[in-house]
Amino acid sequence: MNGLLVINHFLNTHKFNELHAHLVKTAKDMSIGLEIKTNLELATEKATGDFVLFWDKDVNLARRIEKSGVPVFNSSDSIALCDDKARTYVELDGVVPQPKTLIAPKCYFKSDMTEFAEKAVNLLGLPLVFKECFGSFGAQVHLCKSVDDVLNLVTERPFVLQEFVKESTGRDIRIEVVGNRCVSAVRRENKSDFRSNVTNGGTMTAYTPNKNEKNLALTACRHLGLTFGGVDILENGTVCEVNSNAHIINIMSTNGIDIAPIIFDEIRERI
User: Fold this and answer.
1) What is the distance between the alpha carbons of residues 230 and 245, in angstroms, rounded to a whole number?
2) Whole-prediction pTM value?
């Protein structure tokens, strides 16, 4: 079995390079050929192989590869649903519990969102969480304590406003799903930030999810069509976010569970 690992050309840092090297080594150890190709290279080339492990969010490229007949994991549709926080919320609405969320009305340039922000405060209370629809590692997530805080963050980029789950301040559970199994989990905690992301100073400890948490993670991934994914669950039992290509090295360093070979085994079964 031979495939491509598709990565983003413009994310060339130790954090990403370490992950990519680990995936290639794991594939080699499993007698799988895995060649790295960037989205820049494939913008002018044709993807070939038995499969593509798509570790990026360039959904147009992923869809083009799919249409050429090469199986892509995760699929372009799944990546698109996870990458856009508004789409994730809508897709999972009524499927799994989520924090109360309002999606900002679409605008084509920076616009006056005062009316929306005021109504959101009345419905969600303060503080509330401002999230740009596209972003990673918590960098585009902010805690707002007033309408003005919201308005100061508004640009032309799409965003959602979400209720602040106080009991989960700086804490959540990350469950990794592959196929129809919960294969790994950690508890994340940040004592100096309301966001639990390790990038923002959070720490991880090994965790054993309960039956309800496992069901939430499996249901979310199944509904989003994910072959593999990371599901973040807050202390009140709501699904906060779902990641189509969560960073797996930190989790492995925490609980000793290497998710990479499990992903390759799942791909083997599916092709």
Assistant:
1) 7
2) 0.95
